[in-house]
Hints:
Blueprint: E1 3-8, H1 14-24, E2 31-37, E3 43-49, H2 52-61, E4 68-74, E5 89-91, E6 95-103, H3 106-115, H4 126-140, H5 143-151, E7 156-164, E8 170-176, E9 181-184, E10 189-192, E11 204-207, E12 213-217, E13 221-225, E14 231-232, E15 237-238, H6 254-260, H7 262-270, E16 274-275, E17 278-279, H8 288-294, E18 297-302, H9 304-320, E19 325-329, H10 330-333, E20 344-350, H11 356-366, E21 372-377, H12 383-387, E22 390-393, H13 406-425, H14 430-451, H15 454-465, E23 469-474, H16 479-493, E24 496-501, E25 519-523, H17 529-541, E26 546-551, E27 562-567, H18 575-594
Parallel strand pairs: 18-19, 18-20, 20-21, 21-22, 23-24, 23-25, 25-26, 26-27
Antiparallel strand pairs: 1-4, 1-10, 2-3, 2-4, 5-6, 6-7, 7-8, 8-12, 9-10, 9-11, 11-15, 12-13, 13-14, 16-17
Helix pairs in contact: 3-4, 4-5, 7-13, 7-14, 9-13, 9-16, 13-14, 15-18, 16-18
The structure holds fructose -6-phosphate.
The site of fructose -6-phosphate has 14 residues, from α9 and α16.
Amino acid sequence: MCxxxxxVAQRNVQEILLEGLKRLEYRGYDSAGMAVxxxxxxxxxxxxxxxxxxxxDCLESVPLAGGTGIAHTRWATHxxxxxxxxxxxxxxxxxxxxxxxxxxxxxxxxQELAEQGYTFASETDTEVVAHLVAREYESTQDLLTxxxxxxARLHGAYALGVVHASEPKVVxxxxxxxxxxxxxxIEEAFLASDPLAxxxxxxxxxxxxxxxxxxxxxxxxxxxxxxxxxxxxxxxQTYEHGDGASSKGDYRHFMLKEIHEQPKVIEAxxxxxxGDNGVLVKSFGIEAESLFSRAKQIHIVAxxxxxxxxxxxxxxxxxxxxxxxxxxxxxxxxxxxVVVPEGTLFVTLSQxxxxxxxxxxxxxxxxxxxxxxxxxCNVPGSSLVRESDLTLMTQAGPEIGVASTKAFxxxxxALMLFTLALxxxxxxxxxxxxxxxxxxRSLPERVKEVLRLDPxxxxxxxAFAEKHHALFLGRGSHFPIALEGALKLKEISYxxxxxxxxxxxxxxxxxxxxxxxxxxxxxxxxxxxxxLKSNLQEVRxxxxxxxxxxxxxxxxxxxxxxxxxxxxxxxxxxxxxxYTLPLQLLSYHVAVLKGTDVDQPRNLAxxxxxx
Length: 611
Ligand code: F6R
């Protein structure tokens, strides 16, 4: 969840590293630091608590100069977010190290090192790695070999970047369980947690595999070794999303920009996957048809917003493809004694493809008797994509705002394609499939229409800014949308929000409803509408203020305390995608009114690569 950048270049690397950190700040932002080797083999370091801007201020007063360096933006796991705990961590004046992940056995290693006289300046797990490298270097006199020896002693997950004053033109990187890519430059080479960090210097990347160690050295030399220490070659891939994603353009926040990108990215996710006869099953991979036709059940596993997408898919898969489906959060699934019925297909959903719990769940599933695994993911080359049998890439492009928006709606789009592919292979209701396919074709246009309602949604947000709680209601496939609406509101505006299936209201939560508890409801024109209307009456009767997002054709009486916003009509099946948008916009505007940090809300990070 932290961000790493490294460089070996002909020029001064301070600005390259700093720009990289700014672009990685979505991964963590409680402290930052940089270490650079100057032309005289001396290591210089600057660190600051707080965001990368605080480090930039320090560097402005005391710049670092040199062609080799590493830098880090942190999301605290071990030790408070102070300057002392900020990376890079050093061992003496020679070794500096940046780390993303968790060293699980650091306590025993720390004790061993302390007994040998090493002293510790921080509360972090990372510092032990710096001392271990320094100790190994005394005998090996080679940074690559030293790190390889040290890695053999580490348990846990890591991406590492290391420099040593005696090798002033070398950066060593290593990955196991946390992402790390190599940026290929012209006579220079770079390292980062995400290609996004390096797009200002290159668009050519090598995605390191689990266990890989890399040495970057003078003249852009890149040498990669696998977990057994064998020299290996990995393909160089060109980054295809362009660099537009890393700037806000004319938008005030990345989140707002990403909300407005949804028509385009949904269209991109559909592209090449629908033909004259419906969904192209082959677009899921050559083995898809055989795998899908053998599937008797589906297990979906994911975290957070991606889990909500999975919950929607359960309704779709059972309703349109007639296939029993279970959905579970990855952190629970991976520790459960899971019973896998014969013919079960395992599906993971993830924006980043690096979420530790989801990856662990995939590896856990691979040891069980599943038919195969499908990853629906937004990051090509991510661990989840590489380790799954089949992949369906969402085309959201890089998502920078910590609160997931376009990744969610593209996941839903991909999940509907998956549902239709299964329905087709299983010969379920071809006419209904054709209707949904038509609906998908016009979905980007409907999404644009909803985005045009932004001023009306912004006007509603004032009613929330002073509130401490909010309740979201939905029924059927809109219950997960209510959950997602509540998650968005709480994570960026810090207002406590809960979501309930509307029919559950009278079984407890109704006791909370009064004039201080705004209630938000999604009311598409579906088969559960009449039941939902009764639930809304229950709220009104208790004096609760209602905010209803409803289909333009739905007859809901206007009344005092009921605020209604009409959405364009859409096929019921696709309504969950459309009804997500007003909830995203509402949360965004409430957060702006409250003055919170919309793109980087407190205590969170974009990519959760620790358990
Ligand atoms: C919330 C949010 C998180 C992520 C979750 C899983 O807005 O973004 O809940 O959805 O951390 O991340 P991925 O999808 O990368 O596996």
